[in-house]
C-alpha cells in the first residue's frame, strides 16, 4: 500500500480536540465504580509509579505504548546536501479493549498519535520515495501532533472482524515480520515499510474487514480515495470516488517451515491526471479507473524451537498496475529478514531488502524533455541491537538509484536509537 500524496495543510485544533476527547474518555473510565465484571476483583486507585500504572491500566483494557526514536542521517554520496542531521519521532499508541472494561465482547478502539521534529529530511538524493518513513509521517506537519489512526474494531464472529475509522496504512503492516515497523523498528525506506500501490492515500478513512476461512484469510478494504491526515469528521467522504482492495492469503508449510502466499487487487474510481495529456495545448485532462494487482510470497528459512515467534525468511512481492493514472506500472520487492539473525539474541532483528519500481511510461514520455523521470531502485540493510528491553540501537544503510533528474546514485547511512516508555 501507499501513497498518492503531494501535499496537505495542518489541522492542529482538530487533533488536539481528538486527543482531549480521548483523554477524557480514559479518565472517565478510570473513575467508574466497581460495577463491571472486569473491575470487581481489581483495586480502583491506580499505583503511583508509571510502570505499575501502565500495567494497572492494561488489566482494565487500556494499553498505552509510547516510543521515542532519534535519527542521525545524511547523504554519504549522491546529489544534494551532504550534511548529517538529527531528527526525532514520537509515537503514542492508545488502545482500548472493550471486553476488559466490562462492555461489548470483542470490541476495541485503536489510536496512533505521531509527532516528528528535527532537521533530518524524509527524502534525500532525488529519490521520489521517502528514505525515512518515520520522518515522512505525519506528512507536511513537522512539530505538530497528529492522530494518523483512530478506528473502532469489532469481532463479528469467530471468523470475521471489522474496523471502521481513520487508518495509517503503515499501521496495517505492524505485525508483519518483514514490512511495517513505522520506519523505527525495521526498514526506514517507505517502500519496504509499506509497499506503494500508487492508489492508497497517506491516511485513509473507511472500513477494513478480515474473514478467516482456513487456510485462507481474506482482507477487504473500502475507503475514501483522498488523503485524510488532518480530517476527523469530514462531510465529503466518497465524494470523489471509492477505493476498494481485496487480499487473499493462504498459510501453509514448505520443507517443514511456515510459508504464505497471496494476491491483492486494488481499484479506484477516483479521477487522476491523464498523463498523456500533460503538455497539451488545451491543458491536462482527467482519467479514472486506476488499478494495481500484486502477488506476495513468504517462506521461513530459519525457525527457533525455543521461541515460537523467532524466525527469519525470504519475502517477495511483485505487482503490475495500469500506469495511467496510476504512477506505478510494475514493481518488485524482495529480501530476507526477521527476528533474530542469531537465536542467542532473541530480541535483535535484521533485514536486507531491495526494490525496483517501474514508474509510468506514459508519465515519463510526457515529461520528456522538460523533466527527466525514470525508474527507481534501491537496496537497504539494517540491524537492530536490543541493549535493554526499553532501549534499541539500529544501523541502517540504503543505496538508491533515484528516479528524478540526472542525480547520482545515493548512499544514505543512518543511526537510530529507540526508547520505549
Observed structural traits:
single chain; Porin; 421 residues
Question: Can you walk through the features of this model?
Answer:
It is a single chain. By secondary structure, the protein is mainly beta. It has one domain (12-420): Porin (Beta Barrel), CATH 2.40.160.180. The chain has helices spanning 12-30, 50-59, 133-136, 169-172, 190-193, 361-367; strands at 62-73, 85-97, 107-118, 146-155, 160-167, 204-213, 216-223, 243-254, 257-268, 272-273, 286-287, 290-303, 311-321, 328-339, 349-359, 376-388, 391-401, 410-420. The protein has a 16-stranded antiparallel β-barrel. Strand 4 (146-155) and strand 5 form a beta hairpin. The longest helix is centred in the N-terminal third of the chain and has 19 residues, at 12-30. The chain is globular and about 70 Å long. Mean pLDDT is 87; it is low at 5-42.
Amino acid at each position: 500500500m501507499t501513497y498518492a500524496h503531494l501535499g496537505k495543510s495542518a489541522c492542529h485544533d482538530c487533533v488536539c480536540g481528538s486527543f482531549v476527547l480521548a483523554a477524557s474518555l480514559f479518565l472517565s473510565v478510570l473513575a467508574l465504580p466497581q460495577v463491571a465484571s472486569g473491575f470487581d476483583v481489581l483495586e480502583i486507585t491506580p499505583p503511583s509509579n508509571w510502570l505499575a500504572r501502565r500495567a494497572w491500566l492494561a488489566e482494565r483494557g487500556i494499553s498505552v505504548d509510547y516510543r521515542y526514536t532519534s535519527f542521525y542521517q545524511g547523504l554519504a554520496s549522491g546529489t544534494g546536501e551532504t550534511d548529517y542531521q538529527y531528527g526525532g519521532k514520537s509515537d503514542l499508541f492508545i488502545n482500548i479493549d472493550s471486553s476488559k472494561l466490562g462492555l461489548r465482547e470483542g470490541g476495541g478502539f485503536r489510536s496512533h498519535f505521531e509527532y516528528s521534529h528535527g532537521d533530518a529530511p524524509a527524502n534525500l538524493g532525488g529519490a521520489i520515495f521517502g528514505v525515512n518513513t518515520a520522518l515522512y509521517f505525519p506528512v507536511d506537519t513537522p512539530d505538530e501532533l497528529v492522530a494518523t489512526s483512530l478506528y473502532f474494531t469489532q469481532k463479528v464472529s469467530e471468523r470475521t472482524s471489522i474496523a471502521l475509522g481513520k487508518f495509517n496504512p503503515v499501521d496495517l503492516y505492524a505485525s508483519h515480520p518483514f514490512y511495517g515497523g513505522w520506519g523505527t523498528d525495521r526498514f526506514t525506506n517507505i517502500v519496504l515499510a509499506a509497499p506503494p500501490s500508487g492508489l492508497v492515500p497517506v491516511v485513509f478513512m473507511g472500513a477494513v474487514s478480515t474473514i478467516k476461512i482456513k487456510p485462507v484469510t481474506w482482507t477487504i478494504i473500502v475507503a475514501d480515495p483522498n488523503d485524510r491526515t488532518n480530517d476527523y469528521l469530514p462531510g465529503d467522504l466518497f465524494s470523489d470516488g471509492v477505493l476498494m482492495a481485496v487480499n487473499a492469503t493462504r498459510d501453509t508449510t514448505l520443507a517443514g517451515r511456515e510459508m504464505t502466499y497471496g494476491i491483492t487487487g486494488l481499484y479506484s474510481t477516483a479521477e487522476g491526471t491523464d498523463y498523456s495529456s500533460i503538455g497539451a495545448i488545451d491543458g491536462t485532462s482527467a482519467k479514472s479507473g486506476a488499478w494495481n494487482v500484486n502477488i506476495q510470497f513468504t517462506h521461513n528459512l530459519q525457525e527457533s524451537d525455543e521461541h515460537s515467534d523467532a524466525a527469519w525468511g525470504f519475502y517477495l512481492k511483485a505487482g503490475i498496475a495500469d500506469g495511467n493514472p496510476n504512477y506505478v506500472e510494475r514493481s518488485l520487492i524482495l529480501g530476507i529478514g526477521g527476528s533474530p539473525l542469531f537465536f542467542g539474541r532473541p530480541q535483535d532483528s535484521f533485514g536486507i531488502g531491495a526494490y525496483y519500481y517501474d514508474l509510468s511510461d506514459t508519465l515519463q514520455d510526457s515529461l520528456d524533455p522538460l523533466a527527466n523521470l525514470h525508474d527507481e531502485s534501491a537496496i537497504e540493510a539494517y540491524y537492530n541491537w536490543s541493549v535493554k528491553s526499553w532501549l534499541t540501537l539500529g544501523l541502517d544503510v540504503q543505496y538508491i538509484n533515484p528516479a528524478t533528474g540526472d542525480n547520482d546514485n545515493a548512499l544514505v547511512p543512518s543511526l537510530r536509537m529507540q526508547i520505549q516508555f
